[in-house]
Specification:
Blueprint (H helix, E strand, L loop, with lengths): L8 E6 L13 H20 L2 E12 L8 E11 L3 E11 L6 E14 L16 H25 L1
Antiparallel strand pairs: 1-3, 2-5, 3-4, 4-5
Length: 156
Amino acid sequence: MEPYSTEPVALIEEVFPQDTNAYNTLFGGRLLSLMDKAGGIACAKFAHREFVTISIDTLTFIAPARQGDLLEVTGQIVYTSSRTACTKVTAYTMSKATWEKSIICEGYFFFVAIDSMMQAIPIPQFTPESAEEKEEWEKAKAIRDNMLAQKAKRDA
């Protein structure tokens, strides 16, 4: 089974008043929702499967987005196991005048592929090729290994 696409997914949104708090900055939960959506679409594009979120890790808020800003949220597959995929999701603000981007948040989103009965199903495998892809693969694998270790402790 081969991946259908390893290309990243990009969503572009504008920050509207209903997306902001009393300081006219974007609610973190709104940004998290957009990031989750971009990650899930990247997985679906990669494997042609339905996915659900199972974990979010190493989420770092770097800078705020403000009312009126444009946001670009990208999701890129960086790791797979037999039934799970990890996307590195990065959010940027963009200037409407120059389209220059500034990073505001990034994190690793893990998803599991499911069938119509909500059972986990196999997915194609991602094979990292470049040095950067291999580095991201190792980071995501370490996060997943830690996640599984924590789950084993809880279940014990």
